[in-house]
Amino acid sequence: MNINQGGMLLPVYCTRTTWFVMIVEGNGRFEMACRHLGSQSQRRRHHYQKVQGSLSVGDVMI
Known about the structure:
It contains no helices and four strands. The chain has strands at 21-22, 27-34, 49-56, 60-61.
């Protein structure tokens, strides 16, 4: 996958997929929603927590 400056990766949901991303040039940010970090109410509804961070050369995200 090659993402150019100003590029964006659209939301993907697949419980059986693993992404491995290594930054080799430039920098950027990532955002994702994580159900496992969100709290659950007594009604067993799932809550999602936003996870975000910055990426720069040499960073790896799995």
